[in-house]
Amino acid sequence: MRLSRFFIDAPLALGLHELPETQAHYIGRVLRHAVGDAVQLFDGSGNEFLGELVEVGKKNVRVEVREVFAGLTESPLHIHLGQGLSRGERMDWAIQKACELGANAITPIVSERCEVRLKDERADKRMAHWRQVAISACEQCGRSVIPVIHPPLGLSDWLGQVEAELKLVLHPVAEPLASHDKPQSLAFLIGPEGGLADAEVTQAKNAGFQAARLGPRVLRTETAPVVALSVAQQLWGDF
Fold first, then answer.
1. Is 144 exposed, middle or buried (0-12, 13-18, 19+ CB in 10 A)?
2. According to a count of CB atoms within 10 Å of the terminal CB, is the N or C end of the chain lower?
3. Phi, psi for 168 (deg, rounded to 5)
4. Side-chain half-sphere of 213: how many Cα atoms within 13 Å?
5. What span, in angstroms and rounded, lies between the C-alpha atoms of 188 and 230?
């Protein structure tokens, strides 16, 4: 039977730990775990922690951590995904799958054809939501490190600061992804629902990006990162 696995946003070590109220409620009231049940925890450090529930209340759950071991090794290919900002579930899907497929950093990109604009309090709420999407994806897929979700950036700002050995912008008229040599780090730029404007593709190329295509069909904005990261991991990563 697979152990329940939870991210704890605090350093873990051997010994007794009281879990945050959110996890306590989920463990005790939703999953209905009981004293004596085994659980697996991780704190984003790269380690995994095996423990046993020693107290399960309505709001209080305590775990005794009894074993620490190295978590899942990260892919040798470091990937920074610049994902065009899209609506609700499409953005959630892109972030979730990018985490499952080994992306190390994700930046929502505001470009000309974006239909979503985030400001102030709404932006803060979306950032918190996206981080939880990433955490849940890592809890499910077994990653021991949570990818960094950066605040949304305008395309020009992101192009000016992103660093990678190979920088690619997806474009239907370009050489296949497999035509590039193996990099150690990779930056992907993927457009929003309406795609990138021709001027934005040119802007990316002027910033050191090379155009790459995934095949003859035009993919949705939430499908493109799944395919792009899968192919990249197959060619140069840990697939």
1. buried
2. N
3. -125, 140
4. 10
5. 12
Cα–Cα dist 166/217, whole Å: 23
Which CATH fold would you assign to the domain 78-236? Alpha/beta knot (3.40.1280)
- How is the chain split into domains, by residue range? 4-70, 78-236
The 10 Å CB-count burial string (b at 16+, else e) for 193-224 is bebbeeebbebbeebebebbbbeeeebebbbb
Are β-strands 38-42 and 47-56 bridged in parallel, bridged antiparallel, or unpaired? antiparallel
Q: How far apart are the first and last CA of the chain?
A: 26
* Top CATH class, 4-70: mainly beta
Helices H / strands E in the chain, number of each:
6, 12
200-214 tens-digit pLDDT: 999 999 999 999 988
| Contact yes or no for 42/5 (Cβ under 8 A) | yes
Q: Which of 103, 111, 115 is nearest to 204 (CA)?
A: 111
Q: How confident is the model at residue 120 (pLDDT cuts 50, 70, 90)?
A: low
Contacts of 42 (CB under 8 A, 6+ apart): 5, 6, 7, 8, 12, 48, 49, 71, 138, 144
Q: Which residue has the tokens 């990678």?
A: 164
pLDDT in tens, 143-165: 999 999 999 999 999 999 999 99
Largest CA distance in the chain: 60
